[in-house]
């Protein structure tokens, strides 16, 4: 009996040893083979279909939209080309990623950033972060809570219809500046319409980079008051549609499409002596007030006291060197000259504010349908004026020599105080816009739900 027990114990020990050896072999050698196999096979589906659940859409639908370059301005400024399958292989985790569950939230809003102005909304006004930080990433997203609302911002070239999960409430950021952009924006509106009709979306708002001459009739049928589904429209430039009920003015902001950064105030930004009275880096258009401006600067020899760099043709490209030069000009100048272009409102105004350089704004109406200064005293730039922008507004560049002469006699302390005023105003301006934006969404979306 004792011998039988010993044999049984020996057999169990032997079996255990064999099992241990097999397990060790599987861990150290079996996994190695499986890793080799995984490395050699594509991570995405071979037929190019979407990754994950709830991302419907045909390949034909994809091809019609992936040709749209991310730069919302110039079709010649292409993103790096690579096949669609590779796009999804490089970002599967981002598509699968779900925002964290948040308690005590009345409203969840998704912001689809399909124009670069969305970055100004998210990073500059909402002060939200984006992951990944790389501006060339194909998919970027961020989350934050503000008031009673939880926001999720998503953007990038791989933000495509049917390839991401949606929530009930959406803010769609679009570019409607020219025909090619309007065509792309229309595709997104039609896609959004199908979601509304399928009751997968309840509420829709649009932030629109409108046409510089305010020719935005193409979006009119999509507004809810005209039988469409867009409940709220935030539009850039002094559009006559603005009524503070369902159409609101929104600022142009900085040129995020050229990677203009979020500038944090610093001691040197406020207190350092600036070597230049003023700056102007930009395009000189034939027979424009910009030619007059250059002539006045040269006549009074003030061009030698200002940072001036001009060109005859506008170029969309921005190099690291040209961006640094432009930022240096803003940082080292007390004033930034802002002559009108196609529209009075320009990126330069907001970029100067970021660096504490006082905008000297040519306060005249440009041709188009953006408003009438005789019937609307605050036009143009009525949003900035209504919020008390501490700028220098002029009607004629002939006023500039007197302004620069006064500037020469100002003490550093006076200039420091003026910079503090400008930077404080700009922070307040963005904070107020954020609050207004959130209140409008909450009032419209939540009240609509109560009525139902």
Largest sheet: 7 strands, mixed
Number of strands: 12
Structural class: alpha/beta
β-strand amount: 15-25%
Radius of gyration: 28 Å
Structure write-up:
The chain has 452 residues and is α/β, with parallel strands linked by helices. It contains 13 helices and 12 strands. The strands form 2 sheets. Strands 2-3-1-4-5-6-7 form a 7-stranded mixed beta sheet, with helices on both faces. A 5-stranded parallel beta sheet has the order 9-8-10-11-12, with helices on both faces. The protein is globular. Residues 23-96 have low confidence and may be disordered.
Topology, pairings included?
Elements: H1 2-40, H2 59-66, H3 84-90, H4 92-96, E1 107-113, H5 117-125, E2 140-146, E3 149-155, E4 169-175, H6 179-197, E5 203-209, E6 232-236, E7 247-250, H7 267-271, E8 276-283, H8 289-299, E9 307-311, H9 320-331, E10 333-338, H10 347-354, E11 358-362, H11 382-386, E12 392-394, H12 400-408, H13 412-451
Parallel strand pairs: 1-3, 1-4, 4-5, 5-6, 6-7, 8-9, 8-10, 10-11, 11-12
Antiparallel strand pairs: 2-3
Task: Describe this structure in a few short sentences.
This protein is an alpha/beta fold and 452 residues long. It is 39% helix and 16% strand.
